[in-house]
Amino acid sequence: MAVQINPSILSADFARLADEAKAVAGADWLHVDVMDNHFVPNLTLGVPVVESLARATDTPLDCHLMIEQPDRWAPQYVEAGAGSVTFHVEAAAAPVRLAREIRAKGARASMALRPATPIEPYEDLLPELDMLLIMTVEPGFGGQAFLDIMLPKIRRTRELITKHGLELWLQIDGGVSESTIERCAEAGADVFVAGSAVYSAEDPAEAVRALRAKAQAATASASWACAH
């Protein structure tokens, strides 16, 4: 299972987004946090910025919609150029229909769970998704400390993915750093969103390489990966 590192532009300089995207050219995806000041208590950016960013970088965009009414708005982010669109199950009226619409428009469909939202009620939805995002902080702000209590949830989710034989990416977002990424990889995550750990570093590209190396080493010895 390939490790993927997705730097979050929430921690980048919004006045220099094109340059900040180039600074992490070795990343797998660029993670774009869309917040509406309703689903979460913060306001970031929307469709016009995603359109501009998609034109400015060759790195595919991974849009994480922390917004109300994702059923209405998510398809517009695919049209804006996002290669992957994540909606929150807590906000979606019809998650299966929405995932199918995102896929039909040509993007990868992803569903996110807040820390207090269990994975088990959504086991039957997993085949409809390309990725599942487990938040390892409360969504809304960057720079928060990693919640260790999410590790069992990551493990349980990985077990469900294995149980059903799915090619489903398992992403984590929140507090990912060189000191936490190995625990997450060992638990079963394979896609890692990192904001402060990348963009607060002196060399963001080197930070991406260091995170990838630590996650790859942990994955290589993880029991879930050895079973594949």
Outline of this structure?
With 228 residues, the protein is α/β, with parallel strands linked by helices.
List the helices and strands and how they pair.
Blueprint: E1 4-7, H1 17-22, E2 30-35, H2 47-56, E3 61-66, H3 70-80, E4 84-88, H4 95-104, E5 108-113, E6 131-135, H5 151-163, E7 169-173, H6 181-187, E8 191-194, H7 196-199, H8 204-220, H9 223-226
Parallel strand pairs: 1-8, 2-3, 3-4, 4-5, 5-6, 6-7, 7-8
Helix pairs in contact: 3-4, 6-8
Family: Belongs to the ribulose-phosphate 3-epimerase family.
Function: Catalyzes the reversible epimerization of D-ribulose 5-phosphate to D-xylulose 5-phosphate.
Active site: 33 (proton acceptor), 173 (proton donor)
Task: Give a written overview of the molecule.
- The chain has helices spanning 17-22, 47-56, 70-80, 95-104, 151-163, 181-187, 196-199, 204-220, 223-226, and strands at 4-7, 30-35, 61-66, 84-88, 108-113, 131-135, 169-173, 191-194.
- An eight-stranded parallel sheet has the order 1-8-7-6-5-4-3-2.
- Helix 3 (70-80) packs parallel to helix 4 (95-104) and helix 6 runs parallel beside helix 8 (204-220).
- It has 228 residues and is α/β, with parallel strands linked by helices.
- The protein contains nine helices and eight strands.
- Its EC number is 5.1.3.1.
- InterPro entries: Aldolase_TIM (IPR013785), Ribul_P_3_epim (IPR026019), Ribul_P_3_epim-like (IPR000056), RibuloseP-bd_barrel (IPR011060).
